[in-house]
Automatic annotation (TrEMBL):
CDD domains: PRTases_typeI. It comes from Lysinibacillus zambalensis. Belongs to the ComF/GntX family. Signal peptide: none annotated. Gene3D superfamilies: 3.40.50.2020. It comes from the Bacteria. SUPFAM superfamilies: PRTase-like. Residues 133-195 form the Phosphoribosyltransferase domain. This is ComF family protein.
Length: 196
């Protein structure tokens, strides 16, 4: 068997993975982080998130989103693919405001889904450049609607599945759900990478 040597995307230690028929014939992604880095992430006990927020996840989010390290979209692709591959509802990533997306140069939510090979559509657009992380719980709950339907977007009477990076108070997902339900969605579920 041939071995491929790559580096851990988080600590740059060498990774060695063998090329196997199972890897080639099934939807298995090559590892992107080492076992030591992987062990730092704490799995969530909820059915609506993969991981719990901890120091390792804080560092990951900072490097991925704010230092614009788009390669890190691959870190959780195997877990996201396994969780979302059988989802029957239409997947919608929570969007960024266009100004924020230009600053960051990529949509971190869309890149996570692309890396995990999960099809999605975008029906929503963000109405404000303010981030929820800059607000306390009361301010988040009193905020005006964070989203609206994109021009020309058509919401059918079917199920939708919102995907966001982190859920703290649930305000972002609640606002997006309300827009979709008011536009005619039959049902809206949600899932996050991280439970805050």
């Amino acid at each position: 068997m041939n071995k491929i040597e790559t580096l851990c995307l988080l600590c740059s230690q060498p990774l060695q993975s063998a090329i196997s028929w199972k890897l080639l014939l099934t939807k298995q992604f090559q590892p992107t982080i080492c076992d030591r880095c992987s062990a730092q992430f704490e799995y969530s006990s909820t059915a609506t998130a993969l991981y719990q927020y901890n120091d390792a996840m804080k560092n990951f989010l900072h490097q991925y989103k704010f230092l614009q390290d788009v390669a890190l979209a691959k870190v959780f692709r195997q877990e996201l693919h396994a969780r979302l591959k059988h989802e029957k509802a239409t997947v919608i990533p929570i969007p960024m405001h266009p100004v924020k997306q230009r600053e960051r140069t990529f949509s971190h939510m869309e890149e996570l889904l692309k890396a995990a090979d999960i099809p999605f559509i975008q029906l929503l657009e963000k109405t404000t450049t303010e981030t929820q992380s800059s607000k306390n719980r009361e301010q988040r709950n009193q905020a005006a609607s964070l989203f609206r339907l994109m021009d020309g977007a058509h919401v059918e009477h079917k199920e939708y599945f919102l995907f966001d990076d982190i859920k703290t108070t649930g305000t972002t997902l609640r606002h997006a759900t309300e827009v979709l339900l008011n536009a005619g969605a039959k049902n809206v579920k949600s899932f996050t990478l991280i439970n805050g």
